[in-house]
Structures
1.
Amino acid sequence: MVHHGTVDTVEWLTPTLVRIVLIGPGLSGLRAPEHTDAYVNVAIPPAGAPYAGVFVPAEVRERHDERHWPARRRYSVRDWDGTRLTLDVVVHGDAGVGGPWAASAARGDVLVLEGPGGGYRPDPAADWHLLVGDESALPAIAASLEAVPADSRAVVRLVCDGPDHEVALTCPGELDLTWLHRGGTPEDVELLPHAVEALVFPEGRVQAFVHGEADEIRAIRRHLLTERGLARSDMSCSPYWRRTMTDEAWRRVKRDFVARMDADVESGAA
Ligand SMILES: Cc1cc2nc3c(=O)[nH]c(=O)nc-3n(C[C@H](O)[C@H](O)[C@H](O)COP(=O)(O)OP(=O)(O)OC[C@H]3O[C@@H](n4cnc5c(N)ncnc54)[C@H](O)[C@@H]3O)c2cc1C
């Protein structure tokens, strides 16, 4: 179902993460997501598009030349209280469509979106929770932490550009949180995988949520399945984006990449 929201507030949470709050009657049909990693697909028209404001993406694709089709980008629902929809968007330099849109968003702008979808929620029956990711996964991880039961423990490893890129997180359960800081070197891609490999796992059944950059997610997933013996059913792993690829390019090869991720562990413990 197609919805639309009007930008109410724009707030920079960190130098590269901007919080957009959308409001308005165009959101009234938006379902309350049951998943804490719920996401919406937003549709952003290219500059010079012969339509504006509220539109139906499928109709635009039928009626207009491909160069005018809106770009689709996926963003997590940080919060939806039935009136206000909160999205936290990474602004990674000047590149892309979604980042620049968010960086220049202003009160009154309209954003067309579809959804929500999703698939993960902390399982109250798990003994502890492992959540790993980068800034793109931070909204889903922040929302998920708020749903971790008070008698449970969450182990969280997040990567960002430095101390001023960290955001406060709350969790009713016990929170073991470490932020890893990139150094601007090729080794940055190993920060999250190494941090997970170095963990001393608490006793009991873990449920894992590992989302973010494709190569990092692949390495962590392989480790969790083959060396830690996690069951696939206890893991939510999603390569949200891929270095050097636009979302369009990534979506074209993502299915093959995910198949290769599965092949990594075909003969493993999982
Ligand atoms: C289910 C799901 C939920 C997501 N939730 C969020 C969310 O809540 N917030 C969020 O910001 N992103 C989220 N993402 C990731 C987001 O959809 C992608 O990062 C998307 O590529 C951003 O689009 P863009 O137009 O800004 O950049 P693109 O045009 O897609 O890419 C341009 C360049 O920027 C690089 N790039 C893309 N994303 C990043 C990044 N995060 N950091 C550094 N470089 C990047 C690309 O590799 C490419 O080189 C989610 C993705 C999925 C699948």
2.
Amino acid sequence: MKTRQLGSKLNVSALGLGCMGMSEFYGSHDDSVSLRVMARAVELGIDFFDTADMYGPHHNEELIGRFLKEAKAPLKIATKFGINRKPGEYKRTIENSRQYARQACEASLKRLGLDYIDLYYVHRVNPEQPVEDVMGELSRLVEEGKIGNIGLCEINESTLRRAHAVHPIAAVQTEYSLWSRDVENAILPACRELGIGFVPYSPLGRGFLTGSFNSETEFEEGDFRANLPRFSKEALLINEGIAKVITKAAHQKKCTPAQLSLAWLLAKGNDIVPIPGTKRLKYLEENAAATEIELTSDEVQALEAEIARIPVVGERYTPEGMKGLNA
Ligand SMILES: NC(=O)c1ccc[n+]([C@@H]2O[C@H](COP(=O)([O-])OP(=O)(O)OC[C@H]3O[C@@H](n4cnc5c(N)ncnc54)[C@H](OP(=O)(O)O)[C@@H]3O)[C@@H](O)[C@H]2O)c1
């Protein structure tokens, strides 16, 4: 697996592993299978695992902690803090105080069984709390050797510039995929100007771009996509046209729609490290193989032009989930 650089000093596999679905949000999960997925990811050369304290909470970090204890694999772990929610509830508060950041970091280190987090993200920025405050505390955690690099999620350009002035940011993580391209307007160009890497989350559109969903889809109990505006039956009636375009183009390229969606992101720049999420070995292997697929600029343009003909219906999140986006 090739590697890519996030910021000035974090070298990671060109594709990471999104671990969120191993704990919640996308239906049922099985820890023993998830642990095998992690082990296979390491065999395939994937050394960049993505989690957050709020996934589960806190099942996802604990599961990775279990894996790290057994595997002793030299992984780069990215985790996040700042979204405070109770188990079983989606309702959240966004917490960025200095004290909260430090407590959250100590708690994540404990759950992961680590003394160092490679990349520590602010999961959501609270616009009521100056970003300089939390950045001050995070830079102290860097000095103390508890975290290696600082990241920000769903940030807007001006907050990113203010944060970067306090301490260099290694990566911005925001949703980015063939059906979520807003980041191309301001935040991705700003990252490039400042030398900050970009980590697209939900690079498969939460599974939608793989062609697995249509307006007839019945979601499993507890699958949070059932509540997302883009996955409503009415929205999917239109949006499924996008998945069809991708499926057709993938057929021409002799790959799967998931692989084409990842290859498209990888083709958008060497500073981009997608983190597709899966809890299945089959999908993991399929996704890892996407790093071998190269799209020409003509292929990229043709795909983008076809998709642009179908405007996406529906917001990315429910009103509760929209809290802290573009903050
Ligand atoms: N910073 C943030 O606010 C934020 C928000 C969301 C996610 N994230 C991070 O980003 C990671 C990835 O995003 P995501 O998991 O939301 O979405 P995603 O990677 O776009 O899609 C995951 C979904 O696609 C399915 N899938 C994966 N590979 C597939 C394949 N080859 N063929 C068919 N289906 C496939 C998965 O199925 P199975 O689950 O059945 O394997 C899962 O339902 C997360 O794990 C998390 O670490 C961050």
